[in-house]
Specification:
Helix content is about 45%, strand content about 0%. It starts with a helix and ends in a 23-residue tail after the last helix. It has one domain. The chain has five helices and no strands. With about 100 residues, it is mostly helical.
């Protein structure tokens, strides 16, 4: 089954659902037809790849990574960046 077949009776709902499915973190646990739709859209759009945390030049997309981003948003794949912060800031008179 595809999204088009499932929502054939309600074009407005189909349009809404297709748009919302492409928002990282919105879909939750994906059904196979939802995963197929997202993967097909990722193959077509470099800007969508970037929004989903993939390089725009990426050609392969892991089902596991797509499912994680759909469920948890980009926080599922982002690595924490630790800023180096000096323990003691210099006093204004020393600057």
């Amino acid at each position: 089954m595809t999204l088009d077949e499932i929502y054939a009776g309600d074009p407005g709902l189909l349009k809404f659902y297709k748009r919302k499915l492409l928002e990282p973190g919105w879909a939750g646990e994906l059904k196979p037809y939802e995963l197929a739709y997202i993967k097909a859209q990722l193959r077509q759009s470099p800007s969508l790849r970037r929004r989903w945390g993939f390089r725009p030049s990426a050609r392969r997309f892991s089902d596991k990574q797509i499912r994680a981003v759909a469920r948890d948003g980009l926080s599922a794949i982002e690595k924490p960046v630790l800023a180096s912060v000096p323990e003691k800031l210099p006093s204004p008179s020393r600057i």
